[in-house]
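Fold it.
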Amino acid sequence: MIHVHPTAIVDPTAHLDDGVEIGPYCVIDGNVEIAAGVIIDTHVRIMSGARIGKNVRIHHGAVISNVPQDLKFKNEDSVSVIGANTIIREFCTIHRGTSATGKTVVGDNCFLMAYVHVAHDCVVGNNVILANAVNLGGHVHIEDFAIIGGMVPVHQFVRIGCHTMIGGGYRVAKDVPPYILAAGEPLEYGGLNSVGLRRRGFSASTIRALKEAYKLIYKSNLNVSQGLEKIRENGNIVPEVTKVIEFIEKSERGIIG
């Protein structure tokens, strides 16, 4: 059964699955798909192109799938995709994609706290936490299980690796490799996210291999390229270390210092 509050406005062409609840004074456009079990609080705006997965919870004042803040945007067709079981708190804004990729994506089981902004063409992985007032520029990619502290601006096209934790209030202008802690101004490597990795079931040997790898990258007299070559020479290449190497080699903005 679908429950729509009498004060809400829902375009008749919007597709709502069973179990959807639309609260007071919401506005739901056409070309919207909302899966089963979604609960939408008061004064929420769901705009054309929204694709919202099962059991998502959207709180008061959020705006999903508004047009991009990009002067090159010419009202081309694009979407905003929200994965299952994601929580979107008060006044979050998520903009749809541009012709560059056609979509903005927020994955499954994410937690976007109040006032988060996800710009056009961003890709946010699964199980990501964005604390209050995190602001993502366009084309930002955040991998699974990353955590970003409150009031953090992330520059457009930046990539943030999986299982990384970034301290609150720091500007992210370069790529942040996976599995680490990052803080400071300018943002810099703060050690391995050992506590988070242990909580998520990473083995002691994997954590040790990652520590050894990052010691060569950040705590030796080698430059980054030399550090990566030394990691290969040492031969302790578990899959997680391979991921670190590949992430750094693909970086276009350069990694944090």
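Residues 107 and 126 are 4 Å apart (CA to CA).
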